[in-house]
């Protein structure tokens, strides 16, 4: 298992969808991305939130990567294919290089 230790401020977004609700509930949490580990089938983002530590796993082939511009700053979005959760972070070439094999699918 390969590992990248990094300190990046990011925003973790989790969408709670319930059939009985009229609309989705979107939870945004500021996080500090501290580490990314990867293995053959996917990678895990290790994040520190204000009240807990979060580990989100992303599978190879089921992850979307988007580069967006926000007020002149490049943002990297790593999103689970079903749109239920994603992480927005400042674009970082070290992260892109580390996860390149998952972006090429």
What is the overall pLDDT average? 89
The class by helix and strand makeup works out as mainly beta
Largest sheet strand order: 4-3-2-1-7-6-5
- Report on the biggest sheet: 7 strands, antiparallel
Topology order in helix (H) and strand (E) letters:
EEEEEEEHH
Which residues sit in consecutive blocks of at least 5 with pLDDT less than 50?
A: none
Q: Shape, please?
A: globular
If you had to describe this structure to a student in words, what would you say it looks like?
- With 105 residues, this protein is mainly beta.
- The protein has helices at residues 93-98, 100-103, and strands spanning 2-16, 25-39, 42-48, 53-59, 63-70, 73-80, 85-90.
- It starts with a strand and ends with a helix.
- Strand 5 (63-70) and strand 6 (73-80) form a beta hairpin.
- The radius of gyration is 14 Å and the shape is globular.
- The longest helix has 6 residues, at 93-98.
- A 7-stranded antiparallel β-sheet has the order 4-3-2-1-7-6-5, with no helix packed on it.
- The chain has 2 helices and 7 strands.
Detail the topology: elements first, then pairings.
Elements: E1 2-16, E2 25-39, E3 42-48, E4 53-59, E5 63-70, E6 73-80, E7 85-90, H1 93-98, H2 100-103
Which features would summarize this protein structure in a list?
about 100 residues, 2 helices, about 10% helix
Summarize the structure.
The chain has 105 residues and is mainly beta. It has two helices and seven strands, in the order βββββββαα.
């Amino acid at each position: 298992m390969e590992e990248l230790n990094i300190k990046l401020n990011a925003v973790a977004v989790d969408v709670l969808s319930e059939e009985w609700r009229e609309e989705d509930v979107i939870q945004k949490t500021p996080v500090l991305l501290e580490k990314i580990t990867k293995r053959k089938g996917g990678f895990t983002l290790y994040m520190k939130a204000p009240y807990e530590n979060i580990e989100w796993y992303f599978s190879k082939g089921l992850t979307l990567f988007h580069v967006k511009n926000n007020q002149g700053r490049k943002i990297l979005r790593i999103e689970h294919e079903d749109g239920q959760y994603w992480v927005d972070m400042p674009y970082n070439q070290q992260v892109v290089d580390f996860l390149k094999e998952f972006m090429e699918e």
